[in-house]
Specification:
Number of helices: 12
Number of strands: 0
Length: 276
Amino acid sequence: RDQLFIKIMLKVGIRKKTKESIAGWVFISPMIVGMLLFLTFPLIFSIVISFTNYTIGMDIFGGDYQFIGFENYRNALYDVFFMQGMINILITCAGIPIGLVISLIITNLLASNPKFAIIFKAIYYVPTICGMVAITFIWQWIYAPMYGLINQVLASINIPTVAFVGSKQFFIPSMIVMGIWSGMGTMILLLFASLKAISKQLYEAASIDGANFFQKFIHITIPGLSPTIFYILVTGISGTLQEFTKFQIMRGGVVSDWSVTPAWWIYNYTIDSAYG
């Protein structure tokens, strides 16, 4: 009798687990389908056609394009605009660690003053929920040579105005500043959440041993935040290497060697090959 009861309970448990598994797969199926259609398939397809002479005008499944090996990659390496775009975007990546350091400082200030922390976190996070197009238009107004906010301030104190987005020496630094401003909100939230997970007993023990704020920051805070810091650096650099929208909008679609990015140049090259 006991063995029969155990078998029945096992069958009930297996059926329940199976139903839960099916329900779980049903709930996540839209995300899986979306990822396959809009991420996995385009990624695999782009890798495959990079070894062919495919252009936009050709039939995807018609097979009327030919395998050309590494010819496309060879052309990219010898393309002046593409290689200059790589240099531009690698320089832009310098804004990630700079923004991370600033976010670390702000996060520690917010943690030491928790009374208004939630208000300032919301303020810092506002740019993150705005679209990149909207953010770019805002900074396009801030950087405008005649009526821009920065140049109006400079003119009011008799300092010559600066062509931020129209000059070779100021464009990339201007984009770095814009990137730091728009990305700090996410960094601060991630760092703040990770900082709260660090045991307060570690700080108390360090205080008893006579450690100052800087020593606590170096030996407790930084190691405790290291996984989050690594995540921010990896995702930030990965996102920056794919920059396209804000560079194109900021320059009004005008391609120049000191403002182009690899993604922007690939887009232009593809369009020109298909329709030009």
